[in-house]
Amino acid sequence: MKRLTIIDISSRKNSVPLVVLTAYSAPQARLFDPYVDILLVGDSLGMVLYGMDSTLGVTTEMMIAHGRAVVKASQKSLVVVDLPFGSYQASKEQAFETAARIMAKTGCNAVKLEGGVEMAETVKFLTLRGIPVMGHVGLKPQSVNAIGGYRTQGKNEIEAAAIFADAKAIEQAGAFSLVIEGVIEEVAKNLTLNLTIPTIGIGASPNCDGQVLVSEDMLGLSGGYIPRFVKRYAELAGATEAAVRQYADEVRARKFPSAKYCYPYKQD
Ligand code: KIV
Description:
Blueprint: H1 6-10, E1 18-22, H2 26-32, E2 38-41, H3 45-48, H4 60-72, E3 78-82, H5 92-106, E4 110-112, H6 120-128, E5 133-138, H7 144-147, H8 157-172, E6 177-181, H9 185-194, E7 199-202, E8 210-213, H10 215-218, H11 236-252
Parallel strand pairs: 1-2, 1-8, 2-3, 3-4, 4-5, 5-6, 6-7, 7-8
Helix pairs in contact: 2-4, 4-5, 5-6
Bound molecules: 3-methyl-2-oxobutanoic acid.
């Protein structure tokens, strides 16, 4: 089966919406691949899988390990891997080194990085050297300390204008698509109208050219605070807990393993 390419994704501007989900593991990639266009190995894995308080502690090694698993277990979707905090902001050369290493070690098709005007030169440097880049503007989780928490962006004209300038700069620098996270709906709608690259919204607008969600959130596997933009398509935490409880009860009662799950003695 042929994998979707950057060209296929670009051609989805103002077309059939792009379906994007995060995937961190081989089982997830195998299950999601037939139904999505892009598998995003997001640095949200730091919080979702490793229980970190933010994405700031995620390392390039983690992204490589999870990215490799997702690429290996998928056939059709474009695979994008996040550049983690501190692995690309220092210089465009540092960004190239990290992105090239991630691409070589995982086999992914593109990388994603957070930032706007300040990252435009870096995005240009990468794209001119054969590294496809997905941008990420609006709420940028790697800047959580600088923006004072995970708060919705674009609430006033100054903020909206800054996000617009960020998006335009990343587009002009050569990014093939742009994640818009946690912004007022009108801001995302306006960006989608004014950009030639597909926009992928999360907590943004149905007018975006695609949508992305963190898979554990939409599957009902994440606990704690659930943002307004998350639709729970399933409640798998409950089903998982019930299965584990039943297993524990059966082991303690010596009901498992029953004969069906044991190898009977056979004489040769
Ligand atoms: O890290 C991530 O999963 C992301 C998505 C939420 C867009 O960046």
